[in-house]
Amino acid sequence: MTETSYPNPNPTALGGGTALRADRDHSSSSRARQRRRIRSVVFHVAVLAIAVVILYPGVWMLMSTFKPTGDIVGNVNLWPETWTLDNYVSALSGIGGISFWTFVLNSLILAVGSVVGVVLSATVSAYAFARISFPGRGVYFAIMIGTMLLPFHVVIIPQYILFNSMGMVNTFLPLLAPKFLATEAFFVFLMVQFLRGLPRELDEAARIDGCGHWGIFRLVLLPLMRPAVITSSIFAFIWSWNDFLGPLLYLKQPDTYPLPIALRMYVDQTSVSDYGAQMAMAVLALLPVLLFFVLFQRYLVDGVATQGLKG
Q1: Tens digit of pLDDT for each residue in 25-44?
Q2: pTM as predicted
Q3: Structural contact between residues 197 and 242, judged by C-beta atoms closer than 8 angstroms
Q4: Model confidence over 79-108: pLDDT tens digits?
Q5: Which among 274, 272, 276, 245 has a CA at the least distance from the CA of 260?
Q6: Residue 309 confidence class, pLDDT cut points 50, 70, 90
Q7: Rounded to 5, what percent of the chain is helix, strand, coil?
């Protein structure tokens, strides 16, 4: 019987097929890298364009502080044609016989007082809603959340009548007292949600050790609430520092004005308006908020990240 013999594969041919497949894979990989590179370039160009549009007003305001007042209005050029520091000199010298630092002090009193009031009242209220069972807790919490849907402008008149009847108008009390009474539902809600993410076993362990509600709140939960407390402090500081309507309603004497009201004093439609000094004061007023945010932004990020953790 004759044995059929088959030719052995050509090693050269096999090597050529492998090389061909390698060339195709390399070409496909190169095209994929090129497409990714093109998408990356398009993405970064788009992001840069959006950043320019967003940052342009702020950069224009900063550059306007170095322009003469006559070159600010009606001129959208970014770069000053004539550089001057007179705007900062005028801003720091104050307006109407009132020093710039008086406005800064008033803003600091309102902002720091708001932070203290919000932290004290919101943390205690949040502990009550999140950790203490009492009749009507769900109803009261729903009513508190419902106040967030109520526009501030609806309660302006009754609040003004109330504070005026109590002789608090033209003082800081109408702007600070509500902060100590947990009227800021947003901060209470924020801290309630944070506390609900902490395990109740911590409360039970502290209660076994002899702690009551005050001990559990002060020794156990409050240190763990630091991210939420600092987040609330940042928002409370910025909102109070930038508040314009509240001081406009309740403050009547120029020496009690905070910075947002003082900025308005530089613009007078019946006489000459000093837009340069207004821009300079706006930049100076922005610095404390920017510094405050930079110092505590890490805690703000921690507070947002911790919301996803459950015990």
Answers
A1: 667 777 878 888 888 899 99
A2: 0.78
A3: no
A4: 888 888 888 888 888 887 888 899 999 999
A5: 245
A6: very low
A7: 75, 0, 25
Distances (CA, A) of 56 to 50, 71, 79, 279: 10, 17, 12, 15
Question: For 193-197, which contacts have Cβ atoms below 8 Å and span 24 or more sequence positions?
Answer: 193/307, 194/126, 194/225, 194/227, 194/228, 194/303, 194/306, 194/307, 195/126, 195/127, 195/130, 195/131, 195/221, 195/225, 196/130, 197/306, 197/307, 197/309, 197/310, 197/311
Side chain identity at 186, as an amino acid letter?
F
40 residue type, one letter: S
Instruction: With CA atoms as reference, report the closest residue to 115 among 251, 256, 285, 235.
Output: 235
Nearest Cα neighbor of 88 from 58, 62, 106 is: 62
In the numeric block, which tokens belong to residue 159?
């609040």
Q: Distance between CA atoms of 77 and 63, rounded to whole angstroms? A: 9
pLDDT in tens, 229-268: 988 988 899 999 999 999 999 999 989 999 999 888 877 6
Q: Which two tokens stand for residue 165?
A: 């009847």
